[in-house]
């Protein structure tokens, strides 16, 4: 009988078996054996970001590999769950299948599909609220994962609060709050402790996320785009310095700022 580890005709059982063998306490990999849920969690987050990065760059060949890396994370956690008697791959797969069926009664049930995307979102939120109630998560903010990236979690917290009416009615009030938080940050910088300055800075970031929501923008996507723009422009500045026989360390702020403005001008259509 062929070894399942080398049987490419059974891709999912093959991967599960590979993970089981890696974790085998007698014959497995010492590094893999030492890991636990907490030590693997950062890798899981990292792999999810690498999937998003491949999608953003439109690199579909790389996306295939990154999706495999992310799938491995699920298999890793389920193997540890199996060892601890908590759950296994089958129960995890069935749990998400049951959830998708329950959350799509217009596809798998008797509800009509003839409704707007907005109505489908509203129905989805009602179903999720009922699920939280079943888990004794009665609070408005219950269930918003603590481990989310801070900017994304801020957005989700604000959306939850807005659903029960705790929200500014327009962007004007949000902009006023941003001005207020900016003033408080400046005052803190000049008079308060480092931890108090950090608190005021966090308040400003939180309100900036709220502004994005009011403008129907994804703060995370907007910041990623700003990061990409900064990277592109700074690399262009470095290239111009290279043409002058210099590195950034051999230049100064005035020269690099002028080159930055030149790069911006070249980008304009």
UniProtKB/TrEMBL annotation:
What is the scientific name of the source organism?
Answer: Litoreibacter arenae DSM 19593
Name of the protein this chain belongs to: Nucleoside triphosphate pyrophosphohydrolase
NCBIfam families in the record:
mazG, PRK09562.1
Q: What EC number(s) has UniProt assigned to this enzyme?
A: 3.6.1.8
> PANTHER family in the record, alphabetically?
NUCLEOSIDE TRIPHOSPHATE PYROPHOSPHOHYDROLASE
Q: Which SUPFAM superfamilies match?
A: all-alpha NTP pyrophosphatases
Which top-level group of life is the source organism from? Bacteria
Catalysed transformations (reactions):
ATP + H2O = AMP + diphosphate + H(+)
GO molecular function annotations of the record: ATP diphosphatase activity
Alphabetical UniProt keywords: Hydrolase
Q: Which GO terms describe its biological process?
A: dATP catabolic process; dGTP catabolic process; dTTP catabolic process; dUTP catabolic process; response to stress; TTP catabolic process; UTP catabolic process
UniProt family annotation: Belongs to the nucleoside triphosphate pyrophosphohydrolase family.
InterPro entries documented for this protein: MazG-like_dom, NTP-PPase_MazG-like_C, NTP-PPase_MazG-like_N, NTP_PyrPHydrolase_MazG
Q: Which residues form the NTP pyrophosphohydrolase MazG-like domain?
A: 35-108, 172-234
Report TM segments.
Answer: none
